[in-house]
């Protein structure tokens, strides 16, 4: 092999290595995006094992392979008792001390900490939020409703992504359905939304 040929061979090897790295990087960056399913509220209720208004008391995204929230059941419509402690996840973003209406499916087995010596919550029964997170609905006090007076305009509401969760046609939403909103989510008065769930729960008995 001539001395002049050596740089060419080295250059060829570098090109092959760089090309392989680029192909590997492209393959690792491929992401599958799953579109949430569209449910009628009654279908969502049927699909869930637990439906409840809960208050988040703590959360752990460190000791488990997924985020785990510990919450107290404030009002139950299905699958849990009021005052009971439930654990659920996996989506990040729920606020400590915040209230949520959750529709949960029972995991096939309890969830355990990654390291058995770590505290966490220990090995616990676990409910999963489904439909790409849309079955976890925030409850908050917002000034987003109809009415001119603050007492009418401001109220506790449930944030329902009505592009994916179809409510009964008579249910007022703010902004109204048809108006573009971030992620297709709108506010429903809590005093309107809770009776819908109570009715669905009563129909099961």
Tell me what you see in this structure:
With 205 residues, this protein is α+β, with helices and mostly antiparallel strands. The chain has 2 domains: 41-137, Beta Barrel (OB fold (Dihydrolipoamide Acetyltransferase, E2P)); 139-204, no CATH class. 24% of the residues lie in helices and 30% in strands. It has 4 helices and 10 strands. The protein has helices spanning 5-28, 41-47, 150-153, 190-204, and strands at 39-40, 50-60, 68-78, 85-89, 99-106, 127-129, 136-143, 154-160, 165-166, 186-189. The strands form 2 sheets. The protein has a 5-stranded mixed barrel with strand order 2-3-4-6-5. The chain has a two-stranded parallel sheet with strand order 1-9. β3 and β4 form a beta hairpin. It starts with a helix and ends with a helix. Residues 2-6 have low confidence and may be disordered.
CATH architecture name of the largest domain: Beta Barrel
Question: Shape, please?
Answer: globular
CATH topology of the largest domain: OB fold (Dihydrolipoamide Acetyltransferase, E2P)
| Proportion in helices | 10-25%
Mean pLDDT: 87
Oligomer: single chain
- The first-to-last residue Cα distance is 87 Å
> Order of SSEs, N→C?
HEHEEEEEEHEEEH
Secondary structure: number of strands: 10
Spatial sequence of strands, sheet with the most strands: 2-3-4-6-5
For the biggest sheet, the summary is: 5 strands, mixed, barrel
Total count of domains: 2
Strand percentage lies at 25-35%
Protein topology:
Layout: H1 5-28, E1 39-40, H2 41-47, E2 50-60, E3 68-78, E4 85-89, E5 99-106, E6 127-129, E7 136-143, H3 150-153, E8 154-160, E9 165-166, E10 186-189, H4 190-204
Parallel strand pairs: 1-9, 4-6
Antiparallel strand pairs: 2-3, 2-5, 3-4, 5-6, 5-7, 7-8, 8-10
């Amino acid at each position: 092999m001539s001395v002049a040929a050596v740089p060419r061979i080295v250059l060829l090897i570098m090109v092959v290595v760089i090309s392989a790295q680029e192909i590997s990087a492209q393959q690792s960056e491929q992401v599958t995006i799953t579109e949430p399913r569209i449910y009628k509220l009654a279908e969502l209720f049927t699909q869930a094992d637990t439906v409840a208004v809960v208050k988040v008391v703590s959360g752990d995204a460190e000791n488990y392979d997924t985020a785990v929230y510990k919450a107290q059941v404030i009002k139950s419509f299905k699958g849990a008792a009021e005052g009971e402690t439930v654990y659920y996840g996996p989506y990040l973003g729920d606020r400590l001390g915040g209230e949520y209406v959750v529709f949960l499916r029972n995991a096939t087995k309890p969830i355990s900490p990654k390291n058995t010596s770590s505290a966490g919550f220990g090995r616990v029964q676990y409910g999963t939020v489904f439909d790409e997170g849309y079955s976890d609905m925030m409850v908050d006090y917002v000034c987003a409703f109809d009415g001119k007076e603050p007492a009418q305009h401001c109220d506790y509401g449930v944030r329902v992504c009505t592009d994916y969760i179809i409510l009964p046609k008579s249910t007022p939403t703010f902004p109204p359905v048809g108006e573009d909103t971030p992620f297709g989510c709108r506010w429903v008065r809590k005093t309107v939304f809770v009776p819908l769930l109570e009715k669905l729960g009563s129909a099961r008995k």
